[in-house]
Design goal:
441 residues; 7-stranded antiparallel β-sheet; Phosphatase 2c, domain 1; alpha+beta; 17 strands; 22% strand; 6-stranded antiparallel β-sheet
Length: 441
C-alpha cells in the first residue's frame, strides 16, 4: 500500500458503526482534525459491532514470506473471555527448508487448522490433515498461494513494487473458514515485516478461538416426508445410495464468538507489531488488517460471515442476487464522504483517498476493529483483499462481473488467481492479495 500519511491539515470524518436500529446504514458522525507524521488521527467509532444486512454502501500461518513472522505456541487461553493477552511474544524468524514436509518449521502449526503440532509428524492430531501429502502452500515472497479447497489465497508482489509488503493468513477449523489480509504501509520502513507479523498472529488467534470453542453438534435442519434417516438405505428394489438429512450446528462458533475473537486477534496483532522498532526519525512500521470468519449454518439461522477491519483492506460478499462491499475504508476521503464533506464520487479519487485514519503499528492510538455480521445466501463468494486489487475494481458489481467470467463451479484458488491476474493486467501498481471463500450451500 502506498499511503500519504504526511497530511497535516484538513478535516477528519468520523462514523458510527451500523446497528440493528439503522438497518445496516452508515451514519456520519462529528468532524475532527487530520493526521500528520507522528501524530495519529483516529476514525470515529471503532469497536462497535453490527448484526445487519448488506447495504448499498456498503493457516497455517502461511503468508507473505518477506520478513516473515510466526506465532510460537497458541497464545490463546480457553474460556469465554478469549484472554490470551500475555502470550504474544515475537517469534523467531526464518524460512523452512523447501521440499520437506508441510509442517511449518518456524511455528510447527498445521497447514489447515493452524493448531500447534506435537507428536506424530505425519498427520495433524486435531484435524487429521496429512502433513506429508500434496502441498497446500506454493511460491515465494513474490507470489505465494495457499489452497485449502473451499478457501484459498494468493499474495503477489505486483508489477511496480520491488518487494511484497502484503501478507495473508488462511485456515479452516471445524468447517469454519478464516481469512486474514494485511497490507503494509509502504511509507513506513519495515511494514512488510509488520504485515507478516500481524497476519500470522491474527490467524493463529482466530483458529485457536474456534478450536477452543469446539465444533458444536450437528442436528437435522428438517424432515421432509421423502427424506430417510441419515445413511439409511432405501427400501425400493435396486436402490443403492444412502440419503442424508441436511444438518446445521447447535453450539458452534457463531457470530458473537467470532466478533469477540476478532477483537482479541487484532489486539494481539497490534501487540506483536508494536514491538518492531521504527527507523530513526521515521514512523513506526504499520499495516492495515481485514479479516473474515465464515461460520457454518446453525439451527437458528443461515451461514454467516463475521468481518473485522482496521484501515482500507476490504471484504466483499458476491451473492447470487446481489453483491456488496461489507467494509468501509478508514481513510480521510472515505470518512469525509460519509460525513458529507466531499461528494461520495470523490472518495476514491481525492488526493487523500489513501490517507489512513486508522492502522496497526507502534504509533497507532486506537486499534479496536470495526466488526459486522452478515448472513450469506448461497451460492456466494466471500472476498478479502488489499487495495492492490480494489483500486482497479472497487464497485462490488464490477468485482462480481470479473469473478463471473469463471465457470460457476470454479474453485476458490481459481477465483483468487483470476482476480490477481486481472490486477496485474491493469498495471499491478501495488502489491495484490486476494483470499476467496466459496460458499456452496
Amino acid at each position: 500500500m502506498t499511503v500519504g500519511r504526511h497530511d497535516n491539515g484538513g478535516a477528519r470524518a468520523c462514523w458510527a458503526q451500523r446497528g440493528p436500529a439503522t438497518g445496516g446504514l452508515i451514519i456520519p458522525g462529528p468532524v475532527g482534525t487530520g493526521r500528520h507524521a507522528g501524530s495519529p488521527a483516529r476514525g470515529g467509532m471503532p469497536g462497535e459491532s453490527t448484526y445487519g444486512t448488506p447495504s448499498e454502501n456498503g493457516m497455517t500461518v502461511e503468508h507473505d514470506a518477506a520478513g516473515s513472522y510466526d506465532v510460537g505456541g497458541s497464545g490463546y487461553h480457553g474460556g469465554s473471555g478469549y484472554g490470551g493477552g500475555a502470550g504474544y511474544d515475537l517469534p523467531e524468524r526464518g524460512m523452512p527448508e523447501r521440499g520437506r514436509s508441510l509442517i511449518d518449521e518456524r511455528t510447527t502449526r498445521c497447514p489447515r487448522c493452524a493448531v500447534v503440532l506435537y507428536g506424530d509428524p505425519r498427520y495433524c492430531d486435531s484435524c487429521g490433515f496429512a502433513l506429508q501429502g500434496p502441498p497446500v502452500v506454493n511460491g515465494d515472497s513474490d507470489h505465494l498461494e495457499k489452497d485449502l479447497g473451499r478457501i484459498a489465497g494468493v499474495c503477489d508482489r505486483g508489477v511496480r513494487h520491488a518487494t511484497n509488503e502484503d501478507a495473508m493468513g488462511v485456515a479452516e477449523v471445524f468447517g469454519t473458514l478464516i481469512a486474514v489480509v494485511c497490507d503494509g504501509v509502504s511509507t513506513t520502513p519495515g511494514s512488510g515485516e509488520a504485515s507478516s507479523a500481524a497476519a500470522a498472529t491474527a490467524t493463529a488467534i482466530l483458529a485457536d478461538a474456534v478450536r477452543a470453542h469446539g465444533p458444536g453438534r450437528a442436528v437435522p435442519l428438517g424432515r421432509p416426508a421423502d427424506v430417510l434417516e441419515p445413511l439409511e438405505p432405501g427400501d425400493d428394489e435396486g436402490y443403492e445410495d444412502p440419503v442424508t438429512v441436511p444438518a446445521a450446528l447447535v453450539g458452534g462458533f457463531g457470530p458473537e464468538e467470532a466478533e469477540l475473537a476478532l477483537h482479541q486477534a487484532v489486539q494481539a496483532a497490534q501487540d506483536t507489531i508494536a514491538q518492531l522498532s521504527a527507523a530513526e526519525g521515521r514512523m513506526a512500521p504499520s499495516c492495515t488488517i481485514a479479516a473474515a470468519i465464515v461460520s457454518p449454518p446453525t439451527a437458528g439461522g443461515p451461514r454467516t460471515v463475521t468481518i473485522g477491519w482496521v484501515g482500507d483492506s476490504r471484504v466483499y460478499l458476491l451473492g447470487p442476487r446481489w453483491s456488496e462491499r461489507l467494509s468501509a475504508d478508514d481513510t480521510w476521503a472515505a470518512e469525509a464522504a460519509r460525513a458529507g464533506l466531499i461528494p461520495a464520487s470523490e472518495a476514491e479519487t481525492h488526493r487523500r483517498a489513501h490517507t489512513l485514519t486508522r492502522w496497526l503499528g507502534g504509533d497507532a492510538e486506537d486499534v479496536a476493529p470495526h466488526t459486522a455480521v452478515f448472513p450469506i445466501e448461497a451460492p456466494a463468494t466471500v472476498l478479502v483483499c488489499s487495495d492492490g486489487l480494489w483500486n482497479y475494481a472497487s464497485r462490488p458489481d464490477v468485482m462480481a462481473a470479473i469473478v463471473n467470467q469463471l465457470p460457476p463451479d470454479a474453485q476458490a484458488l481459481d477465483v483468487a488467481r483470476h482476480l490477481v491476474e486481472f490486477a496485474v493486467d491493469q498495471g499491478g501498481h501495488d502489491n495484490i492479495t486476494v483470499i476467496a471463500a466459496r460458499v456452496d450451500r
